Amino acid sequence: MRPKKTRWVTCAPKERCFRPQCKPKNSLQGVILNLDEFEVMRLTHLEGYEQEKIAKQMKIHQSTISRILASAHKKVTDALVNIKAIKIKQGCCQIAGSGKKRKA
Fold this sequence. Notes:
Elements: E1 7-9, E2 17-18, E3 30-34, H1 35-46, H2 51-58, H3 62-81, E4 85-89, E5 93-95
Helix pairs in contact: 1-3, 2-3
């Protein structure tokens, strides 16, 4: 498999973990939402950007944006329906203006 191309994001989440209050921590499962998935959801749903604009901003292909968005929707839906925590990880992203690539 080819290595993932660096994805450029402009907004780092202020909180990295969200969990339901109705379930004890020790019995809680979780899903991992990559930073690029977080960014694509933010740009699509909060900023109202089209996928073409997001692709240019993140410096990746538009079809990749579509796959990232579908993956993010599946993970968030799984967390909401099945009462799971959501943890946001850096992945293969670089925050614009940070100067260095971060991995987590």
